[in-house]
TrEMBL record:
It comes from the Eukaryota. One of its GO terms (cellular component) is CCR4-NOT complex. The gene is LOC107496358. PANTHER family: CCR4-NOT TRANSCRIPTION COMPLEX SUBUNIT 9. Signal peptide: none annotated. InterPro entries: ARM-like, ARM-type_fold, CNOT9. This is Uncharacterized protein LOC107496358 isoform X1. GO terms for biological process: mRNA catabolic process. Belongs to the CNOT9 family.
Length: 297
């Protein structure tokens, strides 16, 4: 018997075991560890009787320990294994819209609404963000429209302020992907309240990065700003508003070293400053070559 056939049989057996409360914990662990090895696991999970219900039962079962925060590492690991399988379903082209139409992302929002910085909660938020990130990774206006009908923007902004660097990075990536869709950009720019809420959080993150730089996170932040500065959509008043909330640290030499090896992000930053009519403050002599590269990139 071929190895692929053996793997498929093993996957089917483990999926069956998800419906048995006594066998579920081990099945969750094994499936989440080997999910990349099983062909079309998403279809198997979605089409097997009672499987999605069992995964949702795992999620709902820890709601009571979210507030007050009493989540143990073991509970967090177990529910994150269930979330990893849901991410598999969210990623597959044949199950993505079924996943959305069942409103399954809403079951994850209580996790994103938590504020405890303990490791079990941070792992829970990060894994939940991974599910949403899988949805937005493929450019699909229908996905963006669904997410905008929920509280995803405020929840991501909360994580961007309170989460670990990795959680902040994933949350900012989600906001970036929403903004890159015209529907998402229109949503954020429709009211001053939404526009400034996003701008305020991005500004706070830039200030924090001046103390603890992260080129990966900064790249997503600058891409968000650049999209907000889209000249085709920005009237004079909106341009003034964006210019007023753009951190000084993006205009001077604060992040020269952080961006030295990232030509793409340097180009984005230069385009952003051009779009809002801001001249980059000349850096110290030691960074002159870097700034020249930005101007010609």
């Amino acid at each position: 018997m071929k190895m692929i056939e053996v793997s498929q049989i093993a996957a089917e057996q483990l999926v069956l075991e998800l419906s048995n409360p006594d066998l579920r914990e081990n099945a969750l662990l094994e499936l989440s560890k080997k999910r990349e090895l099983y062909q079309d696991l998403a279809l198997l999970l979605w089409n097997s009787f009672g499987t999605i219900a069992a995964l949702l039962q795992e999620i709902v079962s820890i709601y009571p320990v979210l507030s007050p925060p009493n989540l143990t590492p073991a509970q967090s690991n177990r529910v994150c294994n269930a979330l990893a399988l849901l991410q598999c379903v969210a990623s597959h082209p044949d199950t993505r819209m079924l996943f959305l139409n069942a409103h399954i992302p809403l079951y994850l929002y209580p996790f994103l609404n938590t504020t405890s910085k303990s490791r079990p909660f941070e792992y829970l938020r990060l894994t939940s963000l991974g599910v949403i990130g899988a949805l937005v990774k493929v450019d699909d206006t229908e996905v963006i429209s669904f997410l905008l009908s929920t509280e995803i923007i405020p929840l991501c902004l909360r994580t961007m302020e309170l989460g670990s660097e990795l959680s902040k990075t994933v949350a900012t990536f989600i906001v970036q992907k929403i903004l890159l869709d015209d529907v998402g950009l229109d949503y954020v720019c429709t009211t001053a309240e939404r526009f400034f809420a996003v701008g305020r959080v991005l500004g706070n993150m830039v200030a924090a990065l001046a103390e603890q730089p992260s080129s990966r996170l900064l790249k997503h932040i600058i891409r968000c700003y650049l999209r907000l500065s889209d000249n085709r959509r920005l009237d004079n008043r909106a341009c003034d508003a964006l210019r007023s909330c753009l951190p000084e640290m993006l205009r001077d030499a604060t992040f020269n070293t952080c961006l030295r090896e990232d030509q793409t992000t340097r180009r984005w930053l230069q385009q952003l400053l051009h779009n809002v009519g801001v001249n980059r403050v000349p850096p110290l002599q030691a960074g002159a070559g870097f700034d020249h590269n930005m101007m010609v990139a």
